[in-house]
Design goal:
Helix content is about 35%, strand content about 20%. The chain is of the alpha+beta class. The strands form five sheets. Strands 4-3-2-1-5-6 form a six-stranded mixed beta sheet, with helices on both faces. A hairpin with a 2-residue loop joins strand 8 and strand 9. The longest helix is centred in the middle third of the chain and has 22 residues. Bound molecules: zinc ion (3 copies). The site of one zinc ion has 5 residues, from loops.
Amino acid sequence: MSAQQSGVSAAEIATAYADATPALGAGHALEARLIGAGAYARRLAAARDAAEAAGLDALLIGFGADMRYLTGYAAPALERLTMLVVPVRGEPSLIVPRLEAGMAGDAPAMRGGHVARVAWGETDDPFALVATAVRAGARAGSAPISVAVSDRLWATFVLRIDAALAAGGAAAPTRLASSVLSAIRMVKAPEEAALLRAAGRAVDSVVLAITSGKLLGRSESDVAREVRERLTGAGHEVASFAIVASGPNSASPHHEAGPRIIEAGDAIVLDIGGQFGGYGSDTTRTIWVTGRGGAVPPSADFVRRYELVKRANAAATAAAKPGVSCEAVDAAAREVIVAGGEGERFFHRTGHGIGLEEHEDPYIVAGNRTKLEPGHAFSIEPGIYVEGTNGARIEDIVICTADGVELLNATSRDLYVVEG
Ligand code: ZN
Ligand code: ZN
Ligand code: ZN
């Protein structure tokens, strides 16, 4: 079975999605309705098959997005080892501290009996337990033992796992789990697409509220606080980021909201997002604050640059479809801005994949020859930044379909010109 197949019917997804209006707790509720134990069984099987095809004996997954993807367990990022062992033979197991075993047991893959729990006490050696599980599930006569670890596994865990495996005989150099999981996680199953779609709808409601509310005279931090409150109120369980970059700060793509007071004549780059049922939202709109009576309208130069960004966003969106490479989508956006003479001021990639992580494969960047497939979800976010003056960016999340992309953000891509 492939990871793309869903245990939930299209009709069930449509109903669940329609019911999930942006509201407090909506993300978790939709996740619980759409992703059951069966989905995790399919994902674990796909991961095991891919690991075997790659000549590995096991995948070793620490806390983070890979573990959540494979089990539904959002393990805490703590110093006691929690590790999912997916061997190519036999049952997956979760090595988990005893004091968190109950919590882990509530996660769908464990509750569904697809992953066995191995609880370890304070004086046990969890690394020895990992090594034992790896050897028990290795390919027949496999020597040296070959494992892949989740990409963000802490060095303190990697080194002790390596030592535990080496203690039992030859072990090959440790590889990265993304070498087998990335291709699987990139292609979103229908229930994942539904969560991304709902996340987009929730974040759009926040954009509408902020762009139609008061901005003039407020600090960036105060607007960012409102953004975070609204993200949570619209169903995100985590308000991950709230970039409110005003005036000269709008020329800094990853500006952190600070004490600056918003004034007439400011451009504001509003780039916000969170986690909705585990899945990311991420959208950017650009605002111009004229002041009362339209006192300081956008300059002709700014409007020219904004229109380039808008055309670049549209060109990349139109270019994206199955079989087109990620770098070709980047080029479609970049060509517009280069032709407009602003190429030097568009100094970041056009986009990034999105799912259980805010930034994940596929990256929409020169040099990435990965071809788009239906189910790939990613951002399209060209921008132009004039240091010391201002900047503009327009960002949408899209999902690749059979013949193009579906836009997950629906707010206007025009410049938001507001009095205050
Ligand atoms: Zn970014
Ligand atoms: Zn963003
Ligand atoms: Zn982004």
